[in-house]
Amino acid sequence: MRYQYQYHNRPGCGGCLLVIALILLALGGAPLLIDVIGMLLAGGLLLFLAMIAGFWAFSFYIKRRVSQYEQGQTEARNNFVSLLVHILVKVAQIDGKITREELHVLG
Fold first, then answer.
1. Are 106 and 92 spatial neighbours (Cβ–Cβ below 8 Å)?
2. What share of the chain is helix, strand, coil (3-state, %, to 5)?
3. Predicted confidence band of residue 104 (pLDDT cuts 50, 70, 90)
4. Which helix (H) or strand (E) element contains residue 99?
5. What is the pLDDT of residues 4-58, one digit of tens each?
6. What secondary structure does DSSP assign to 25-61, as a single string?
7. Do the beta carbons of residue 33 and residue 24 sit within 8 Å?
């Protein structure tokens, strides 16, 4: 006898929400239900605003770190790197041809 798996759809949360709404109506009437819905909406709005503030703070932090890094790059360091690359190019040109391996090292 072969068993075949059958997928069963689980019920959604609509029934749970309906039961919760009925309990709230029974306990405090429409004002309690409206208060709970208002608190949920306000909490969602606050969470959304907190996420926007967190994103702004993170982007500000990243921009500040990049700016600090760029300011730390002195002219002497940039000249050193430029001269080092120039020396490596000259060494690669000594034999008159530049191979892919040499280009890979330079890149």
1. yes
2. 80, 0, 20
3. confident
4. none
5. 776 666 666 667 778 888 888 888 888 888 888 899 999 999 999 999 999 999 9
6. HHHHHHHHHHHHHHHHHHHHHHHHHHHHHHHHHHHHH
7. yes
Domain assignment of residue 32, given as a range: 1-72
Residue 94 pLDDT exceeds 80: yes
Rounded to the nearest 5°, which phi and psi values hold at 12? -75, -175
Look up tokens 């080092």; give the residue. 84
Co-location of 7 and 57 in the same domain: yes
Question: What pLDDT, on the 0 to 100 scale, is given for residue 95?
Answer: 81
Same-domain status, 37 and 49: yes
Residues 59, 8, single domain; the answer is: yes
What gap in Å lies between CA 81 and CA 70, rounded to an integer?
15
Distances (CA, A) of 54 to 40, 77, 84: 21, 35, 42
* Amino acid 65: pLDDT: 93
pTM, full prediction: 0.47
